[in-house]
Design a protein that fits this description.
Oligomer: single chain
Protein name: 8-oxo-dGTP pyrophosphatase MutT (NUDIX family)
InterPro entries: NUDIX_hydrolase-like_dom_sf, NUDIX_hydrolase_dom
Number of helices: 2
Distance between the termini: 11 Å
CATH topology: Nucleoside Triphosphate Pyrophosphohydrolase
Helix content: 10-25%
Radius of gyration: 13 Å
Order of helices and strands: EEEHEEEEEH
CATH class: Alpha Beta
Number of domains: 1
Organism: Spinactinospora alkalitolerans
Shape: globular
Largest sheet: 4 strands, antiparallel
Number of strands: 8
CATH superfamily: Nucleoside Triphosphate Pyrophosphohydrolase
Length: 121
């Protein structure tokens, strides 16, 4: 989860849901390295990876798969607009007050709120 200017970075996927940037850890890579690599790959924003404000289990109904989501709070000094990779359809910077109205899994909403409210943010 990246917050810049009091707005959180979200990406819209092919299912028309908003989600956080991220991905799978490569062999020999730490989870923090994975988060930094994936965010930069998906948005062109370099980040500094911070604490874990939330984690949860996500069930993907279409393929009956469970994925353990670990949300890291991240910071960026990037001032450029987000460059959306081929993995997503759109990017947005969204204020905390707009999260509840988004088409987005509840777990992601909880993670976003957790980082907005985290004392170390």
């Amino acid at each position: 989860m990246v917050i810049r200017d009091e707005r959180g970075l979200l990406l819209r996927n092919e299912r028309q849901e908003w989600e956080l940037p991220g991905g799978k850890t490569d062999l020999g890579e730490t989870s923090q390295e994975c988060v930094a690599r994936e965010i930069e790959k998906e948005t062109a924003w370099p980040v500094m990876v911070g604490p874990i404000p939330d984690s949860w289990m996500y069930h993907i109904d279409a393929v009956d798969r469970r994925v353990f989501i670990i949300t890291y709070g991240c910071r960026t000094t990037a001032r450029a607009p987000v460059r959306v990779s081929h993995e997503h359809k759109e990017a947005a910077l969204v204020g905390r007050d707009k999260i509840d109205g988004l088409v987005m899994p509840e777990g992601y909403k909880h993670s976003v709120r957790a980082w907005f409210d985290h004392p170390l943010r």
